[in-house]
């Protein structure tokens, strides 16, 4: 069999390698228009900080290695300019010589990726000071410019994965960075409340975050925002999203899906059965919603590539769709999310609820034990797990990956509660973050107690609601909600007369464990209007902090306490 592959990176190289593993006799040729195949897109931003010192090391395998180790012909600087499904040929342009030639295929796989968006409506995007980060050539160009021009300030436009990673790595390299984001939060897979923790991290590290701002022009030395604000910038990195590369596909009659990605069936075949497509260029189906969507992530691209190659050789594959698991690092934080977020549930009209907890990521006595902010989203009343988001200094990815696994296997809160996970004080707690959060969720779903979210507290304060702080005096003294009453957990049984039964009472502690116990106790004593503030003081402080710093609104805490 003669297998041709368009695109030589995540999806393309994986199709080629899998095809070779399935059949030693097939001829496998990979066409890549750039000078490199098999490079690590995901590691590109880390060259800016020097975490990856040598940009050449970003290229994982060269054509010579592909040929000698795998008998795969990797042709670089070769752009495929047309596909002829009727003749089963492709037309290729050698970008070094200008020569154009045709190649015949039995099976063809497209993995041409996606292109960085660069709106023409923004003046100056074609300037020498404007960059994207998509491949090794791009990162060398950006880094070269930074060094040559002694760049001190950079505007990064777009607060998605690439923008945030570029921002962090430039800041680690000592640059002043302005991160410009069009809506009110960075990292759209997270809900607004969780994103506040990231905004705090950026703010505390000196990033100039411009939310709800769009750029209108890029000039020498500055960018102009639609609000009229001028931001100093010696260089600009555009990271406002990607659009699937579908030109070749469209021109040869390959169908495009409703989201603009290449339409494929569950075997990654296009409407031409001998032409497959995988990776950032295709449209995928969301496992939880059955919606068509797009997902520019390396893991799915590799899985799709393997499945496509398998199908070429008659092997079947169980395509379960995507759930959108992802993680990112930001200074001292690890951040991960999977499945649906609250915004998705609202948009789709799903009956959902959340459990928000901040347990320790390991036993508190151990070195480097830290709180882990964890949000679990589930369907009501089935308890089906829909999504999770985690932020913390420790092993966030492992917790969110556990939830991703549960979602993939249609798990419920009951399953999660019973999940037996490994434990040693080095790595977690006997009741792991995910087990703990499932218990909280089950309690809420079964109306064992009532809760309010951290994003509801400001309104409660403004309404002068009855809020009790049950932490001990030394904790209260370091900062508390402005109009809260202090009745420590160790005293509340003696001070019940101070707690009203005829109006709602909202209770918080540091991270909701003590307040939950007080809520349960009061309930058994006949209080039926008591609410636990999910996330408690730690959650309130992290949620409120960033907007308190950058707006002139009134604080609802006397002082913050993040420990
Ligand atoms: C900076 C950055 C960081 C990232 N970080 C992460 C991460 O941490 N985690 C994660 O899961 N994902 C990450 N991604 C996304 C991930 O890299 C992509 O989802 C993945 O590479 C997609 O694989 P692909 O094969 O579809 O496209 P690509 O890997 O982009 O490969 C497409 C290739 O096709 C070539 N091509 C296009 N058209 C033609 C043509 N006509 N002829 C010949 N060649 C052609 C292109 O030159 C390109 O090299 C990151 C991406 C970037 C850019």
What does this structure look like?
The chain is of the alpha/beta class. It folds into four domains: 2-40 and 55-112 and 245-312, 3-Layer(bba) Sandwich (FAD/NAD(P)-binding domain), CATH 3.50.50.60; 130-240, FAD/NAD(P)-binding domain (3-Layer(bba) Sandwich), CATH 3.50.50; 326-448, 3-Layer(bba) Sandwich (FAD/NAD(P)-binding domain), CATH 3.50.50; 451-550, Rhodanese-like domain (Oxidized Rhodanese, domain 1, 3-Layer(aba) Sandwich), CATH 3.40.250.10. Helices cover 28% and strands 24% of the residues. It has 16 helices and 30 strands. The strands form eight sheets. It has a five-stranded parallel β-sheet with strand order 3-2-1-7-18. Helix 1 (10-22) runs parallel beside helix 8 and helix 6 (192-204) packs across helix 16. The model has no long low-confidence stretch (mean pLDDT 97).
